[in-house]
UniProtKB/TrEMBL annotation:
CTP binds at D103, K113, P130, D131, I132, L133, F148, K162, K166. It comes from Weissella paramesenteroides ATCC 33313. The gene is coaBC. This is Coenzyme A biosynthesis bifunctional protein CoaBC. Signal peptide: none annotated. The keyword Transmembrane helix applies.
Length: 227
């Protein structure tokens, strides 16, 4: 079985995917992050390669092996991710923000290890990170932009709002409060929202089969043709 589909639906296309939970340093030994494993983004990278795309993966995780045939760039913070995404933007045909970006970072990262306080409490001041997906949505010049939404309640309302507000072309919504869905699992269940079509609820399935289905929908959207 050939790994590269020389005549795949995404042949000649450059697909840029972010994956994993970004890491914000508190001090030299501690950090703020989240439960994202990166598995969904890595599965999308594999699926894009299978369909013949030229793939760049911008990864915030070191827990998964670099996918074969994919240019993988490792980053940690949301700011580093933002720099890489904007460097890739002009050369991209498709951009997928599968990374779980930390919404906040330290106002100031401590130079030295923070010592235990005598007062019995510690207050950290956090500032908001840039919304990379929304900024890409403002800056894009014809790239097909895909975002995710991780919700624990009001899935459809919140996801619709994100699709609009961030000017994405596709928003993949998952209810991460459900068992086997989203963070850390090898399976996922999502609803796909696009600007012009009715929301489509997909069944619970492995992240790789879901990734193949998502990449197929993206290729149809950008090629304007059915397989
Ligand atoms: N995202 C981003 N930059 C951020 C925060 C989120 O690019 N600073 C992207 C994520 O990669 C994802 C989408 O925006 O594709 C939605 O992320 P999510 O955390 O679900 O939404 P937020 O807009 O951060 O809102 P909230 O966390 O309050 O639900
Ligand atoms: Ca968020």
């Amino acid at each position: 079985l050939a790994l590269y589909q020389k005549n795949g639906q995404l042949k000649g296309r450059h697909v840029v995917i972010s994956a994993g939970g970004t890491v914000e340093a508190i001090d030299p030994v501690r950090y703020i992050s989240n439960r994202s494993s990166g598995k969904m983004g890595y599965a999308l990278a594999r699926a894009a390669v299978e369909q013949g795309a030229d793939v760049t993966l911008i990864s915030a995780t070191s827990q998964l092996p670099d996918p074969v045939g994919v240019r993988t760039i490792h980053i940690q913070s949301a700011q580093e991710l933002s720099e890489q995404m904007f460097t890739a933007l002009p050369h991209a045909d498709v951009i997928i923000m599968a990374a779980a970006v930390s919404d906040y970072r330290m106002a100031q990262t401590a130079q030295n290890k923070i010592k235990k306080q005598d007062s019995g409490e510690l207050n950290l001041t956090l500032v908001e990170n840039p919304d990379i997906l929304a900024q890409l949505g403002s800056a894009k010049t014809g790239q097909y932009l895909v975002g995710f939404a991780a919700e624990t309640q009001n899935l459809m309302t919140y996801a619709q709002n994100k699709l609009k507000k961030k000017n994405a072309d596709m928003l993949i919504a998952n209810d991460v409060s459900k068992d086997q869905v989203g963070f850390g699992y090898d399976t996922n269940q999502v609803t796909i929202l696009t600007k012009d079509k009715e929301p489509e609820m997909l069944p619970l399935q492995s992240k790789i089969t879901l990734a193949r289905e998502i990449m197929k929908k993206i290729s149809i959207a950008i090629n304007g043709q059915v397989e």
